[in-house]
């Protein structure tokens, strides 16, 4: 049971990191369906750099930077050139998964060069249950919690957050207020990449820690789902992350609890729940403003304002 | 200070898209050369093998053709939805749904005559894909639920349904515990055309041509284009948007489902969770490169088929088959980049004081 709850927190953080990045990207008006590919790039970069340097922190940072740069490919095409966001994002997924498989071919099956060791909180870690579940986690988990609080504050309490939300609601208004919509959106896309990279690196530097082709196994799609499940709010997304993380953790442990339910069917739940939430959001949107950013998916061309 | 801006051309450059596609192809191949050199391979030898394996002989052509069938149908599925401004990102799941239904019929129809069994399988495949798309279709038409997300989510649901079947009630008792469905009977196999090619190519080409004709020559196709370009105009003209959205998305799902049925009956020994090698996602790229035109879909699908067959062939040279995946993505990115310039011209703009400070 402790193992299940501890894994729930780990998987929840994994999903939450990538979802936070996608949330910021979507808030700025850009839909990036490349999360799955970005996670793969982060995972392979982290693992390979750890093999070279034996330093988990350099590897973690390298994964974040490399994936942010990789995400800017989507930024270049959608923000600067105004290409279809759906097409560009899916291509980013296809490219990321392919590139990761290509680059990581020599690393398959090798032991990790370094791992991010769990943080030792001293006496806190020794508390029964709570210590194991919350205070023996990888540093990435605490990073995810801090990132969630930071993103939440940024969105609601800063002018940068206001401009970011504006870019996703009414780009021309933000433009008229003197901000560069292009710069805001590019930064948001890069942030989305950085967070997906962190999530991917968490897999190969801590959770798994190995590299194999197809390691991300659709978790990037769950992160995309999580943004919608959380109705584009960091707090609600955190609740969703724990829920979906719990489902991922439960999947491998069902038999041990003697429950006669196929773990495969259970793993459908995040997607079905997300569809259900989206339907509720859409029905509510008839009477009041939708939870989704109004300009999500639309290119902005200043000259055609 | 001067800066560069994109200005929309009065008229789209003629022949721009084939040219953009070509530029994308060259761009992708150049990136491929760099990647191969970095990883210590000989690009010329590898590209040579890819061309040889995919286009170098009648046998190679037949394999490429088989590969182009699901790509073309998935591309058409995306294009059909796209003709109304809708995105069907669920072709991957609909292919699986189609394959599952076809496999189910093959189980029921043991001992049926081959033409009957194959027809029933393909019809069931269409129904399977259409069924999976019907939820997003109705939700979009009636409540306005974003079809991009619902179709995307159902991909994962369909994949898990298939895994559940293969690990559970469909598991072959003779597979010694491996999660494998039983082999298909010989009656369920699509007849051959030449070498390895099967009749799927004829069916796919027929479906693509049929939709091309219906879209360009019938009132229904005309209404589709009107509804796709302007919802308001369509309402004034008395076209029911709700019904159009529902029909088009379900039709799109049915076409993708057919791809799954053909793939099972034509190419596979049995249904596996890898029955669709990412065809649904590649189909989106195919449709985008073809600018949603049926004739373009067929051409791009053939080329992507060749790239994929070539990619598989270089595994024996110690190169990851993901080279072909990388090439496909960069063809698209290169073509999008080039395509922008057929619609927009680059102009130098002077940001003098009058415009920036007034």
Could you give the topology of this structure?
The complex is a heterodimer of chains A (305) and B (358).
Chain A: H1 2-27, H2 35-53, H3 56-80, H4 85-103, H5 123-126, H6 130-134, H7 139-157, H8 159-169, H9 171-176, H10 181-207, H11 219-229, H12 234-251, H13 263-266, H14 269-284
Chain B: E1 2-8, H1 16-38, H2 43-55, H3 58-82, H4 91-108, H5 114-143, H6 147-167, H7 200-217, H8 219-229, H9 231-236, H10 241-267, H11 279-289, H12 294-313, H13 322-343, E2 344-350, H14 353-357
Antiparallel strand pairs in B: 1-2
CATH C-level label of chain A? Mainly Alpha
The sequence of SSEs of chain B as H and E is EHHHHHHHHHHHHHEH
Helix content of chain B: 55-70%
Give the low-confidence spans of chain B. 353-358
The radius of gyration over CA of chain A amounts to 19 Å
Oligomer: heterodimer
Structural class of chain A: mainly alpha
Number of domains of chain A: 1
Outline the structure in words.
- The complex is a heterodimer of chains A (305) and B (358).
- Chain A has 305 residues and is mainly alpha-helical.
- Chain A has one domain (2-304): Orthogonal Bundle (ABC transporter involved in vitamin B12 uptake, BtuC).
- In chain A, 69% of the residues lie in helices and 0% in strands.
- The longest helix of chain A is centred in the middle third of the chain and has 27 residues, at 181-207.
- The radius of gyration of chain A is 19 Å and the shape is globular.
- With 358 residues, chain B is mainly alpha-helical.
- Chain B has 14 helices and two strands.
- Residues 353-358 of chain B have low confidence and may be disordered.
- The chains are: A mainly alpha (305), B mainly alpha (358).
- At the A-B interface, helix 4, helix 11 and helix 14 of A face strand 1, helix 5, helix 6, helix 11 and helix 13 of B.
Keywords for this entry:
heterodimer, A: 305 residues, mainly alpha, ABC transporter involved in vitamin B12 uptake, BtuC, 14 helices, 0% strand, B: 358 residues, 2 domains, two-stranded antiparallel sheet, globular
């Amino acid at each position: 049971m402790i193992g299940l709850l501890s894994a729930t927190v780990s998987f929840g953080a994994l999903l939450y990191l990538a979802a936070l990045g996608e949330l910021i990207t979507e808030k700025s008006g850009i839909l990036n369906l490349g999360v799955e590919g970005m996670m793969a790039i982060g995972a392979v970069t982290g693992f390979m750099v750890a093999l070279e340097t034996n330093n988990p922190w350099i590897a973690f940072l390298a994964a974040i930077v490399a994936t942010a740069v990789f995400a800017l490919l989507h930024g270049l095409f959608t923000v600067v050139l105004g290409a279809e966001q759906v097409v560009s994002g899916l291509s980013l997924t296809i490219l990321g998964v392919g590139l990761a498989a290509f680059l990581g071919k020599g690393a398959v099956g090798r032991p990790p060069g370094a791992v991010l060791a769990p943080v030792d909180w001293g006496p806190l870690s020794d508390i029964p249950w709570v210590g194991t579940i919350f205070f023996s986690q990888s540093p990435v988990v605490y990073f995810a919690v801090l990132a969630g609080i930071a993103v939440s504050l940024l969105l609601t309490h800063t002018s940068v957050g206001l401009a970011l939300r504006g870019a996703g609601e009414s780009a021309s208004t933000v433009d008229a207020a003197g901000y560069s919509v292009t710069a805001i959106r590019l930064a948001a896309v890069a942030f989305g990449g950085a967070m997906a990279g962190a999530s991917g690196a968490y897999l190969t530097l801590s959770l798994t820690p190995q590299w194999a082709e197809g390691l991300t196994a659709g978790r990037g799609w769950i992160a995309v789902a999580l943004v919608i499940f959380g109705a584009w709010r960091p707090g609600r997304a955190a609740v969703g992350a724990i829920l979906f993380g719990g489902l991922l953790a439960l999947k491998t442990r069902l038999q041990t609890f003697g429950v006669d339910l196929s773990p495969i069917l259970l793993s459908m739940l995040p997607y079905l729940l997300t569809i259900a939430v989206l339907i509720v959001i859409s029905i509510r949107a008839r009477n009041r403003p939708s939870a989704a950013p109004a300009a999500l998916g639309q290119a902005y061309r200043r000259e055609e304002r | 200070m001067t800066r560069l801006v994109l200005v929309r051309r009065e008229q789209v450059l003629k022949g721009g898209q084939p040219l953009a596609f070509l530029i994308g192809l060259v761009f992708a191949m150049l990136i491929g050369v760099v990647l191969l050199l970095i990883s210590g391979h000989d690009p010329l030898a590898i590209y040579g093998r890819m061309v040889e394996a995919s286009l170098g002989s009648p046998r190679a052509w037949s394999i490429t053709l088989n590969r182009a069938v699901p790509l073309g149908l998935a591309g058409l599925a995306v294009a059909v939805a796209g003709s109304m401004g809708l995105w069907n990102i669920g072709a991957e799941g609909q292919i699986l749904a189609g394959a599952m239904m076809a496999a189910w019929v093959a189980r029921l129809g043991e001992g049926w005559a081959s033409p009957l069994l194959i027809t029933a399988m393909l019809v069931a495949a269409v129904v399977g894909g259409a069924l999976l798309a019907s939820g997003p279709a109705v939700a979009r038409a009636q409540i306005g639920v974003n079809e991009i997300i619902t179709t995307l989510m159902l991909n994962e649901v369909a994949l898990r349904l298939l895994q559940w079947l293969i690990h559970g009630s469909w598991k072959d008792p003779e597979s010694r515990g491996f999660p494998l469905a039983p082999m298909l009977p010989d009656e369920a196999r699509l007849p051959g055309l030449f070498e390895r090619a099967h009749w799927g190519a004829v069916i796919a080409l027929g479906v693509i041509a049929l939709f091309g004709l219906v879209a360009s020559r019938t009132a229904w196709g005309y209404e589709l284009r009107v509804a796709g370009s302007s919802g308001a105009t369509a309402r004034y003209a008395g076209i029911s948007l709700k019904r159009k959205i529902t029909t088009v998305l379900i039709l799109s799902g049915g076409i993708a489902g057919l791809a799954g049925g053909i793939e099972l009956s034509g190419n596979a020994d049995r249904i596996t969770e890898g029955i669709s090698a990412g065809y649904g996602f590649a189909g989106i790229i195919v449709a985008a490169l073809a600018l949603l035109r049926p004739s373009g879909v067929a051409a791009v699908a053939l080329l992507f088929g060749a790239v994929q067959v070539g990619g598989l062939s270089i595994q024996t040279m110690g190169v990851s088959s993901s080279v072909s995946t990388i090439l496909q993505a960069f063809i698209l990115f290169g073509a999008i980049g080039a395509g922008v310039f057929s619609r927009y011209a680059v102009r130098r703009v002077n940001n003098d004081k009058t415009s920036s400070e007034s």
